Every structure is written in structure tokens, then in C-alpha cells.
Amino acid sequence: MLTLKANQKNLHRTVCAELKEKVSLQNSEDTAIEKGHGRLEVSEYHVVNTEKIVSEFPDWPKIKTFGVAVSYRATKYGRDSIQYCYYISSANLNSEKFAIAVRSHWGIEKKLDWVLDIAMNENDCQIYRDSVAESLACTRHIGLNMPKIHINRNIADSLILILFIFMYFEVSFFLKPKYL
């Protein structure tokens, strides 16, 4: 499952038009309602047949499902919003399976973003030179997965190993290490 974004202009425009038409014509087969923290959120999940759309986009032959998650959010402060998130998938999904896939996709995304942003300070990284930013992003992901790989080690030892890996990459890219 991938989020369909506007950088694929023609595909995004076509899928949006097709799904908005479907959303306005029928109620969702799968709806989730969440209450809490002073807000009410209703999420609807819609999918469409891909045959018509895929024939127009030969670069995307394996797409089996186009879907949209529509979130209606109302807060006790009167701030209401509607958000449309479009997705493509190579799996053949009905509305129910699509809803499960979207919810699990967001759960993973939120956990990963939190660790990268809070624990690894990724948002404060101001390095944009050449491919160094991409290399540091790969290093962060290695650092996230390293403790999971070294089952024999305890977490403290794994984190020390990760620190040395970060220091190595920083020195390799001629950056001043901030850990020394």
C-alpha cells in the first residue's frame, strides 16, 4: 500500500476524480467512529475498480486497488475538518480489507515518525548537501533496526554500537561529530 500524492499529477488527478464521484454517490461499506480527547472522528473507506484507470497509465500495471480514506473530524472547539487520503495497492482489496490496511499503515507510520522526529531529532537536521541527507536517513533507519537484530546483546550495548556507527558515518562524510 502506498499513499498517492500529487507528485504523480495525472494519476492523482484521475484517481481523485473517480473516487470523489464514488464518495459523493454512496455511503461507505466500512466506517470507523472514534470518540475521545475532545473530538469525534468518522472515517470512511472507499475503493474503486482499477481496470479503467490502469489502462490509461501503463507505468502502473500492477495496481489492483485505488482507495480513499475520508476523515471527518469535529472538535469541541468547533474546528471541523475533512481530509482525503488517496492510496494505491498491488493487492486486490475490498472496502473492509482496505480499511484495515490503511489503519495499520498509519499505525506504523506514526510510530516510525515519532522515533525519527523525537528520539533522533530528524526534523532538526539541516544537512542538504549532495546525498548526505539520504545517507543520514539510511543511517537512522539502521540505528532503529540494530537493537532488533542483535538478540544476543542487551539494549544498552546495542545503543552504544549504534552510537559508534553514527560517529563513523559523520566522520566519513567530513562532518564534525557532535558526540565527541
Automatic annotation (TrEMBL):
Record has rRNA-binding as a keyword: no
Chain coiled-coil ranges: none
Keyword Membrane belongs to the record: yes
Keywords: Membrane, Transmembrane, Transmembrane helix
Ranges that cross the membrane: 155-175
Domain of life: Bacteria
Cited NCBIfam families: transpos_ISAs1 (NF033564)
Protein name as annotated: ISAs1 family transposase
Organism in which the protein naturally occurs: Aliivibrio fischeri
